[in-house]
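Worked example 3 (structure in, sequence out).
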């Protein structure tokens, strides 16, 4: 079993308690402002279900997945919808979603895995669809406190997608962590558009 998934299964209740009520509306709105009412969103690595519930409560249709069985259970209880247990690499949809929300999720992939998963994500969104994703800001890649992380900067993300033809970076910005005592940690936020 992947150590990161094992971590989330073991610590699911604590992780959910720490993240389920975080103030994230500014970024959620930045994403939904680019979607029409009733758009279909994939919450890709939904964790506690916080964002899935926000999107549902604001009139969007949502499908949600996570690789952690324990988090799927917590998210299903929180949102009232079925959460599919699957790995990022298993995404296999074609032009189904208006938007994919991958908040603090695909950062757990190894850097060499990211381009192929991003290609699957782009295949899964409709033409002109959008993807939101976020990474810890920096150059570290490896295990950190039981989980695998790929940290990125504007430059390293641009290099990562340089050979992917049908995507453009519509917006990118850096934020500080919203969790208590984590304010010094920076995040790279990106909104990608399928061309």
């Amino acid at each position: 079993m992947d150590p990161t998934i094992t971590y989330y299964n073991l610590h699911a209740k604590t992780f959910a308690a720490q993240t389920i009520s975080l103030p994230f509306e500014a970024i959620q709105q930045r994403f939904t402002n680019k979607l029409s009412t009733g758009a279909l969103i994939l919450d890709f690595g939904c964790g506690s279900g916080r964002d899935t519930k926000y999107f549902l409560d604001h009139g969007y249709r949502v499908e949600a997945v996570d690789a952690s069985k324990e988090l799927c259970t917590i998210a299903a209880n929180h949102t009232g919808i079925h959460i599919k247990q699957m790995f990022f690499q298993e995404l296999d949809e074609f032009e189904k979603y208006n938007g994919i929300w991958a908040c603090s999720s695909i950062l757990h992939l190894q850097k060499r895995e990211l381009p192929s998963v991003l290609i699957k994500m782009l295949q899964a969104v409709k033409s002109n669809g959008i993807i939101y994703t976020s990474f810890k800001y920096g150059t570290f890649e490896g295990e950190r406190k039981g989980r695998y992380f790929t940290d990125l900067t504007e430059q390293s993300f641009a290099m990562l997608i340089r050979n992917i033809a049908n995507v453009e970076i519509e917006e990118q910005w850096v934020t500080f962590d919203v969790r208590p005592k984590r304010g010094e940690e920076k995040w790279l936020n990106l909104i990608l558009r399928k061309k």
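Notes: The longest strand covers residues 125-136. The helical segments are 3-10, 12-19, 25-32, 50-57, 69-79, 114-124, 154-160.
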